[in-house]
Amino acid sequence: MGHALKLLAVDDDAPSAELIVRVAERCGYDAFATSDSRGVINLVAALRPDVMAVDISMPHVDAIELFRMLAEAKYPGDIIIVSGQDEQTLSMVQRAAELMGLRRPHVHQKPLDFAHLRETLTKRLAKAG
Questions:
Q1: How far apart are CA 16 and CA 70, in angstroms?
Q2: pTM of the full predicted structure?
Q3: Are 5 and 50 in contact (CB under 8 A)?
Q4: Residue 125 to residue 4: CA distance in whole angstroms
Q5: Mean pLDDT by 10 residues, the chain (129 residues)
């Protein structure tokens, strides 16, 4: 099986990011959190996460901008959009990510449903294994 999959949680609210990290760790991931949205791209280059959980309502960097940078960096992994936004905004962001050549993001609305999150992460593990 080799090494554990890596997850990077990006959320300007550190406790939210930590929660995702804890769920991911329980699912067997090596998980990391950052609340510095501006440093994300460097972190992605360094960590090479298999999955990124991204809160799309952050100051400084808008989600589309972040996805554009990820697409330019040819990020090959999965993206989970975590957000309290409405469905319409979320599907627009999903679509934008797809058009840029990223893998269609999973969407998880806040407040997070941890069972649903575990299920998404576990499916990704099954695919990798």
A1: 22
A2: 0.91
A3: yes
A4: 9
A5: 87 92 98 89 95 83 86 94 88 92 91 94 86
